[in-house]
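User: Predict the full complex structure for these chains.
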Amino acid sequence: MLSGPSGVGKGSLLTALLGQVPGVARSISATTRAARPGETDGVDYHFLPRERFLADAADGRFYEYAEYNHNYYGTPYAQVDAMLDKGVDVILEIEVQGAKIVRGLMPDAILIFVQPPSLESLEDRLRKRGTDSEARIAERIQLAAAELSCLPLYDYSIVNDDFDQALDQLRCIVIAERCRIAETADTAMQSSNDR
Amino acid sequence: MLSGPSGVGKGSLLTALLGQVPGVARSISATTRAARPGETDGVDYHFLPRERFLADAADGRFYEYAEYNHNYYGTPYAQVDAMLDKGVDVILEIEVQGAKIVRGLMPDAILIFVQPPSLESLEDRLRKRGTDSEARIAERIQLAAAELSCLPLYDYSIVNDDFDQALDQLRCIVIAERCRIAETADTAMQSSNDR
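Assistant: Here is the predicted structure of the two-chain assembly.
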């Protein structure tokens, strides 16, 4: 799971990671918000009508869902589980509250937090992006501070100061976690001998 | 700490790693065995006379020491601690029993095990190296099997099948561990703000 304040560059890091590391895929969230120009259904999000989304939620089809800015966002079980079953490492771009819920459901999940070098630099970035009003930027910065307070719950922290370095760190976390010896696991050699 | 059977390629991986990642250094062991041609005191080992080694051991100057093939080998405290104090990541090439001891003394230490793709491939490698008798090779393979049984104590496993891939994995483990959030640590942002 990849969390971090809005504007910190999670999406760009994730897109670049997918181009570098085989066997990694992005979980596509469901949302009730309208598609923005350039967004494709099933690629950027699963765009669902409000009733369908709430019916899916009532059927327990989401790992977690939340209302955010008057729209619902959720992480569909079926899609994530299908990829995990194929041995794919699934990456969820997920806000802090959702990450807490998924961690409870999947204790082996790895939590990575992408930090800005400072809140000031995040403010600069949001201002340069030019998509938010000053009031909205102030709200985002407050939210970022709240999210940063959850950092001790995470396994890894990446400070996105230099993009290439942050991308290398993200890639290294994925590669290293694949080398990790699970508490209950047999040795790779033993299991390869079993085949 | 980097462990693994004799002949698995730990030394070559470590040398290559030191050339790639800044802020990493190798701990130089002390030994009572004679320097081999091409080995330099203070670079490959600290070559110590037997009495000096045992006096140092009696003074508690080693994290761990062991007798191996009629010679003593030890990991000096002073050297490792001086590097750690400077913020350097110190890598110990250490056999399994020594790794267990150091882990007890430094619970935050990371244990990496380098595996051969199979015991058969290790045997091939030792035979091609041509430095051991058949009886010695058989003994080394038995020892390798014993060492592999300790793999569940380790944090990470690297299978040294393809050297470049194994090196990348080793590098990734170091980079990823630097991103790891310590249980008690403040956020990087908070600590950078404190500076």
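Residues 185-195 of chain B have pLDDT under 50 and may be disordered.
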